[in-house]
């Protein structure tokens, strides 16, 4: 009988084994496998802060366009564009903070908003609880107009041709200034 009292309570044992809460993040651009920012997701995976769930496509049509330096932007304009192909990851709070930093959420570059996606595997199961990084609402409409109402169903290597990494872009302008210049210029 004494041995039973030495064992931890069942509730305490379950609490210790519970994995951290994860957010499902839909990636559609440079965070995808084979693209320039994917090493961040690999780093997060190696620390246990991200895991690949599977290939996915947006449940609804949304525009995917390229801005300055071929930077990809998903626009929160449901019904426009195409169903966009990408990848779904499960990310911890620590991983999400790192992604928010990369995407400039606090600087109004992108905003993290809900998205519904269909998984490619498993009969196309719908996931309604994911998030994605959309172009910030302050300039999303301008990017759509600049694109002439034409987007892409996927940020492929052909679409990304000409992409310039952040460290290789002109350093005298902020990202928001680069976007303003881009949307005001002629194609």
Automatic annotation (TrEMBL):
Biased composition, class Low complexity, residue ranges: 1-12
N-terminal signal peptide: none
Region (Disordered): 1-21
Every Gamma-glutamylcyclotransferase AIG2-like domain range: 25-137
Residue runs in coiled coils: none
Pfam family, one: GGACT
GO molecular function, one term: gamma-glutamylaminecyclotransferase activity
Residue positions of the active site: 103
Annotated GO CC locations: cytosol
Classification via InterPro entries: AIG2-like_dom (IPR009288), GGACT (IPR039126), GGCT-like (IPR013024), GGCT-like_sf (IPR036568)
Similarity-based family: Belongs to the gamma-glutamylcyclotransferase family.
Stated role: Putative gamma-glutamylcyclotransferase.
Protein name: Gamma-glutamylcyclotransferase family protein
Naturally occurring in which organism (per UniProt): Panicum miliaceum
């Amino acid at each position: 009988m004494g041995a039973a009292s030495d064992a931890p309570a069942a509730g305490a044992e379950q609490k210790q084994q519970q994995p951290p809460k994860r957010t499902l993040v839909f990636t559609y651009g440079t965070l995808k496998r084979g693209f320039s920012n994917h090493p961040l997701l690999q780093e997060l995976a190696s620390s246990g802060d991200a895991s690949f769930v599977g290939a996915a496509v947006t449940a609804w049509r949304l525009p995917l366009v390229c801005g300055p330096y071929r930077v990809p932007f998903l626009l929160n304009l449901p019904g426009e564009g195409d169903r966009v192909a990408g990848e779904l990851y499960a990310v911890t709070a620590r991983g999400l903070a790192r992604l928010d930093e990369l995407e400039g959420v606090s600087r109004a570059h992108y905003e993290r908003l809900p998205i519904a996606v269909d998984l490619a595997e498993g009969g196309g199961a719908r996931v309604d609880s994911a998030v994605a990084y959309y172009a910030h609402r302050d300039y999303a409409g301008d990017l759509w107009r600049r694109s002439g109402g034409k987007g892409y169903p996927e940020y492929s290597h052909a679409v990304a041709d000409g992409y310039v990494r952040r460290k290789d872009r002109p350093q005298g302008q902020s990202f928001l200034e680069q976007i303003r210049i881009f949307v005001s210029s002629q194609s």
